[in-house]
Amino acid sequence: MFLTKVSLADKFARFSEQWSPKIAGEINDSYVKLVKFQGDFVWHHHDHEDEMFLVIKGRMLMGLRDPEERVIEVNAGEFIIIPKGVEHRPSAPEETQVVLLEPKTTLNTGNVRDERTREKLERI
């Protein structure tokens, strides 16, 4: 068994790319991913996976195409869980650092494939 602690500040300092999640750890059948982003992502959903977004730095706006068609603001120290099947679009007015907890099968763009789709993720 390999045990280590992780410094989020150190891990986030290792990359500058936006919208390109990095694997920082594993727990059971899930990855702990780190991502930086600014601006709008693509509207998408995940047929089989729930996702957790924990904002570490900055402010994320999560657009939801649920019955209410709403935007939820998620600030540093807060998280939101998006249930499978819910169409959503993360965005951020300034660069935001987010920890994602999601099954290993989760594709970052869900049911959409475009230039931001990352099939193979880098480990940091």
Gyration radius (Cα, Å) is 14 Å
Helix content: under 10%
Number of helices: 1
Gross geometry: globular
Name of the CATH homologous superfamily: Jelly Rolls
Unreliable runs: none
Look up the CATH topology. Answer: Jelly Rolls
Strand/helix succession: HEEEEEEEE
The structural class is mainly beta
The overall number of domains is 1
Instruction: Please state roughly what percent of the residues sit in beta strands, choosing from under 5%, 5-15%, 15-25%, 25-35%, 35-45% or over 45%.
Output: over 45%
Kindly provide the name of the CATH class.
Mainly Beta
Arithmetic mean pLDDT? 91
Distance between the termini: 19 Å
Counting DSSP E segments of at least 2 residues, the number of strands comes to 8
Q: Largest sheet, if any?
A: 8 strands, mixed
CATH 2nd-level architecture: Sandwich
Report on the architecture of this protein.
The protein is mainly beta and about 120 residues long. It has one domain (about 20-110): Jelly Rolls (Sandwich), CATH 2.60.120.10. The protein has 1 helix and 8 strands; from the N terminus they run H-E-E-E-E-E-E-E-E. The protein has one helix at about 10-15, and strands at about 20-25, 30-40, 50-55, 60-65, 70-75, 80, 85-105, 120-124. Strands 1, 2, 3, 4, 5, 6, 7 and 8 form an 8-stranded mixed sheet that branches. Strand 4 (about 60-65) and strand 5 (about 70-75) form a beta hairpin. The radius of gyration is 14 Å and the shape is globular. It starts with 7 loop residues before the first helix and ends with a strand. The model has no long low-confidence stretch (mean pLDDT about 90).
